[in-house]
Predict the structure.
Amino acid sequence: MRRKLAAGNWKMNGTTAALSELEALTRAFPSPTVDVLICPPATLLHRAAEAVRGTGITVGGQDCHAATSGAHTGDISADMLVDAGANTVILGHSERREDHDEQNEDVRAKARAAMDAGLKAIICVGESLEQREAANTLEIIGGQMSGSIPDQSTGENLIVAYEPIWAIGTGKVPTLNEIGEVHDFIRARLERRFGEGVGRSVRLLYGGSVKPSNAAEIFGVSNVDGALVGGASLKAADFSGIVEALEKT
Ligand code: PGA
């Protein structure tokens, strides 16, 4: 059985005051029956890790460098994330692919570094609106998967997030059939590449405008094991609704 995961991506949001949202979340879910992960900005990571210590909630990073250390001003290594208290890192988010021109091979190198450091990697894939309208979605996702997911992946260290770019922060969500089609495709590709055992054990998250009001129906789709949530993870009240929906799935 794959353990469900509700992951929050705070992106470039939050200073010290935002830790109160995390504290509220720990009070709402002293022992969640699903995995609950918050990925705050790196500046808050250590304090966030302290805030959730001893609870069932964990924290993660939003990116890491492919190298373990060295002359890379402004970058953060996977070991540094571990040192700050992270157990997971989001990699290849479409905003990183766009803002920092990250290519599939960059994401793969980062994922290798993350896995070597003992982190779980949430590798993001997803098509643009133009690609969907041209009926290229599965081809794009397939290419991103083969390019970004390293060979050393297992059900323990890999999580794949399907995030259609046009659904991120827009309030637009694919139909349940569209989500199901992509998640079934990702599952089949993982099974083909890694074998049934590993392929079936990797968790698949949907991301893009997930809210308390649409979470339950999305979690009902086959091969959806949870969500990667941006905007609605910033407030404990909103994120709690999503965690509750996942606990009831
Ligand atoms: P959103 O972002 O929930 O604000 O649409 C999702 C994401 O980018 O992970």
